[in-house]
Write a structure and sequence with these properties.
Layout (H helix, E strand, L loop, with lengths): L11 E2 L8 E6 L5 E6 L3 E7 L5 E8 L4 E6 L6 E5 L3 E5 L8 E5 L4 E7 L4 E6 L3 E5 L8 E4 L4 E6 L3 E6 L3 E6 L6 E6 L6 E6 L5 E6 L3 E6 L9 E4 L2 E2 L2 E2 L2 E6 L6 E5 L4 E5 L4 E5 L7 E6 L6 E5 L18 E5 L3 H4 L10
Antiparallel strand pairs: 1-30, 2-3, 3-4, 4-5, 6-7, 7-8, 8-9, 10-11, 11-12, 12-13, 14-15, 15-16, 16-17, 18-19, 19-20, 20-21, 22-23, 24-25, 25-26, 26-27, 28-29, 29-30
């Protein structure tokens, strides 16, 4: 029996991918580099050439699996965190060696740079957020959370944090030490990913039950809130692993353990496009700064634990795709679903 096509969408395949599942993808601010973190304890950086080809630039290592990464706003530095409980700074463009800039008492699940304050924020399974001035050894502030941090996203004014108890906590970036709002999720199962609306009037929340919740912050817009099924097939339920807003059109992509990437128009409550199903789960995804390029990783998602992981069958891939405008542009009202 022939093996399934690992690249049914004919995307550009990144050479020399990680040997284990990819946990995060992040484009540099100038879109010239792509960083991937993975369960093989590596942080890899690929250079995106003007021709569209991609070459591996450099690699650094953690002692344990790496779960998250982010860039400084000038694109000179990569920050990462993972199961070694450390926060690492990699001056990628300066050629300096990686250094540890912070620590947690549990694995570091999420990381983001806050340019307004020149601070790094990290969210951990130790039930804290920690803010770091990279020139100091101790955190600037430790924010207690009600449960483990499962998802985090930073916008222009607000930060959204999803916790293991299915709460979504909103912080105003001008007052990081005080919760602005706490919202109990209407999804039945744990949060997997969060994405802030581009105008920050609300957020998307994806869960392991194959549903996405669209939620507005202002109570006056409550009628616009809804939940929908998106990664389910023939009665099977798959996790929503990644949610990404298009930076220009403000539609969004959802990627799931069913191996499918869907593009959605939330305002018209429609799916715009479904890419061809991959043979393995989509573990993470990301748009570049102008939305012209979409990166996604394919591999084992660990949903069935280590006992069901077969490295010989679960080869890891990173793909880069140029989505057509019709995939990401909002659909006219009354249009037919695809």
């Amino acid at each position: 029996m022939s093996r399934p096509d690992p690249n049914p969408n004919k995307s550009f395949e990144v050479l020399q991918p990680p040997t284990e599942s990819v946990s995060s993808l992040s484009f540099s601010p100038d879109d010239k580099h792509l960083v991937a973190t993975s369960w093989d304890c590596q942080v890899g950086c690929w250079k995106i050439l003007p021709t569209g080809s991609v070459v591996r630039k450099a690699t650094m290592s953690h002692d344990y699996p790496v779960l998250c990464s982010t860039w400084s706003e000038d694109g000179s530095t990569v920050f990462s965190g993972g199961c070694d409980k450390q926060v690492t700074m990699w001056p990628l463009m300066g050629g300096d060696q990686p250094v540890t800039v912070g620590n947690h008492d549990g694995p570091v699940k999420e990381i983001a740079w806050i340019p307004q304050w020149k601070l790094l924020v990290t969210g951990s399974w130790d039930k804290t957020l920690r803010y770091w001035d990279i020139n100091q050894s101790n955190p600037v502030h430790i924010q207690q959370l009600p449960e483990r941090c499962y998802a985090l996203t930073v916008g222009q004014r607000l930060m959204f944090v999803g916790t293991a108890d299915r709460n979504l906590i909103v912080f105003d970036l001008r007052n990081l030490q005080t919760e602005l709002k706490r919202i109990s999720s209407l999804l039945m199962y744990p949060t997997r990913c969060v994405a802030a609306f581009p105008d920050e009037r609300g957020f998307l929340m994806g869960s392991i039950e194959g549903r996405v919740r669209i939620n507005h912050l202002d109570d006056s817009e409550e009628s616009k809130n809804f939940t929908f099924k998106c990664h389910r097939d023939a009665g099977k339920i798959y996790s929503v692993n990644s949610l990404n807003f298009h930076p220009v059109y403000h539609t969004f992509a959802s990627a799931g353990s069913d191996g499918v990437i869907n593009f959605w128009d939330k305002d018209n409550k429609m799916r715009i496009k479904a890419m061809a199903r991959c043979a393995q789960p989509i573990t993470c995804s990301a748009f570049n700064s102008n939305g012209s390029t979409f990166a996604y990783a394919v591999g084992y998602d660990w949903s069935k634990g280590a006992a069901n992981h077969n490295p010989a069958k679960a080869k890891t891939h990173i793909f880069i795709h140029k989505p057509e405008e019709s995939w990401v542009k909002p659909m006219p009202r009354g249009a037919t679903r695809r």
